[in-house]
Every structure is written in structure tokens, then in C-alpha cells.
Amino acid sequence: MEFHDAIARARQAGACREALEAVESMSGWNEFALHPRAAEWAMWYASNVMQDRVRRLEPIIARHPEYAYRYASEVIRARWPQGEAAIAKDAQWAWRYAKHVIGGPWPQAEPAISQHPEWACCYAVDVIRARWPQGEPAIARNPYYAYYYARKIIRAPWPEAEPVMAQHAQWAYCYARDVIRGRWTQVEAAIAKHPHWAYCYARHVIGGRWPEAEPVIARDGFAAHYYDCTVRGVLGRKEEEK
Questions:
Q1: Could you list the residue range(s) of the whole structural domain that residue 37 is in?
Q2: In a domain, 104, yes or no
Q3: Alpha-carbon span 30 to 78, nearest angstrom
Q4: Does 136 reside within a domain?
Q5: Position 94 in a domain
Q6: Of 54, 87, 120, which one is at a domain's C-terminal end?
Q7: d(CA 145, CA 179)
Q8: Are 223 and 196 in contact (CB under 8 A)?
Q9: Residue 62 lies in a domain
Q10: Which of 107, 155, 159, 156 is nearest to 128 (CA)?
């Protein structure tokens, strides 16, 4: 594929002015390959101009995790061994490749994926669909993903991750509501410092008044209003009727 012919095709396909100005000043493919955005532009050319594989550009695309993944999923629509070495080193694109291209576990990429709380959780939920011990240390470092993993995968209390969730009122409340499904007394003092989450905890976990938290809830107009309407009012009267 001749370099200047490729530029002409890109211009006809509506390539952006910035990209065209950059490549028009280049001497050929060797210089193009050195540009920081070469993989992005090569992927765009394959997808939007040729709408097919462009083997001349594949070594350039294969160096970049994101564009190697996109080339495999959008152009080849199948596994692309040439790009896998780069993809496997990036947790996000490795998870996407395993889910959308391979359609199952990808052991080669698991060392990278297992280091990142978000993508380790997504890999366990969307790819393995079961507990993934290799990724659990990273997942347990993040309160949201620890809660989500416990709820979606373990479906039971996860003591190893509780110290992290206990430091964040929102996820401590959600963990009590959705995983423990009852009061989590060890974190109630922390939750009681946050009006909104204290109201939610009273309504959805305790299921009634929570006197210890009422002074804090009263400081927030929104939380106080709904606490009065749904907890101290309705649920409180039910308790009195028992």
C-alpha cells in the first residue's frame, strides 16, 4: 500500500484536519510508525477507509493495547494473536478482550488483570462468573468493588474485605443491606456520622427508628424529611402498635 495513496483515501473518507496535516508532512510509513498516535490513526484507517484488515498497518496497531483490542473486536472480529502480547499487559483492555473477543478466561492476561480492583472484579463477574482467588486481594482494596464482588459472586459475607468497606459509610450500608442482610453493629458508629446513609440504614437495614443517629440526620433537611416520613413516622408507629 503506497503511503500517499493511503493519505488520499483517508482524505476522501473524512479524516480530521489535524491528522491529515501531520501525515502529509511525513516521508513514509517508517516515519508514520514513530508518531505517538500512529496506532489510533491506523485503526481508524482500517475501520473507516478499508473496512477490512490492513496487514501493512497491523504491526503498528499491535503495539497499542486499546487499538489492538479494537482492531480484533471491530475489524477482525476474532482473536488476533499478533496483538495479544500488548493487550495482555493492560488490565482494562485485557478484560474486554477476554469478555468480547475470546468469550472466556484468558490465563495469559490474568497477572495484569488481577492487580486492578475494577477490572479484576469485572473479570470475575463477566468472564469467570465465579470466585477468582487470584484477583481477590486487589478487589478487597476498593470498597465499591469489594461490596459488588461480595454481592454478585460470593453472595455471603466476605470478612477479608470488611475493614475497607467499614471505612466508607455508603458501602458499609450497602454491604449490610445486600450481603449481611441485617445490622452490622461494628460500623454503625461510622454510618451514624453521615445523615443520608444513616437515614438509609435506619430505613432499609434496621427497619425502624435509630435514635443514636437522629441528631446527625436532623442536620440534613433532605434526610430529616424522609426519616420523619418513612422511619420515625410510619415505621415508628408500627413499632408502637406491636
A1: 1-87
A2: no
A3: 28
A4: no
A5: no
A6: 87
A7: 13
A8: yes
A9: yes
A10: 107
